[in-house]
């Protein structure tokens, strides 16, 4: 599986791809120069239970760290992933 990121203006997406098929995505938006909101995470049900959603959230967190940004998780799944991992709480806006 590979994760590809693209961004246009203030909106972006991380896509999980297996053998040229998109199996999940995470949508985000910049709320300001140092705040990134995770708006939605979705995984194809045929690929559920493989940790793809969590990998997408972690990719977004790594991206935010590279940009010295904080995250506002509007997506309930992303918020749950962050809340369950104490060392990730410092990334919250």
UniProtKB/TrEMBL annotation:
InterPro entries in UniProt: Acyl_CoA_acyltransferase, Gcn5-rel_NAT, GNAT_dom, GNAT_YJDJ
One Pfam entry name: Acetyltransf_CG
Limits of the N-acetyltransferase domain: 1-93, 6-93
Gene Ontology molecular-function annotations: acyltransferase activity, transferring groups other than amino-acyl groups
UniProt xrefs under SUPFAM superfamilies: Acyl-CoA N-acyltransferases (Nat) (SSF55729)
Protein name: GNAT family acetyltransferase
Organism of derivation: Cellulophaga baltica 18
Highest classification ranks of the organism: Bacteria, Pseudomonadati, Bacteroidota, Flavobacteriia, Flavobacteriales
């Amino acid at each position: 599986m590979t994760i590809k990121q693209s961004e246009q203006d203030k909106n972006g997406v991380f896509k999980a791809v297996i053998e040229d098929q998109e199996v999940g995505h995470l949508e985000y938006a910049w709320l300001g120069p140092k705040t990134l909101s995770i708006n939605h995470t979705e995984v194809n049900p045929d690929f559920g239970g493989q940790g793809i959603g969590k990998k997408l959230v972690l990719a977004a967190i790594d991206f935010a760290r590279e940009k010295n940004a904080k995250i506002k998780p509007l997506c309930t799944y992303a918020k749950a992933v962050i809340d369950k991992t104490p060392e990730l709480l410092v990334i919250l806006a």
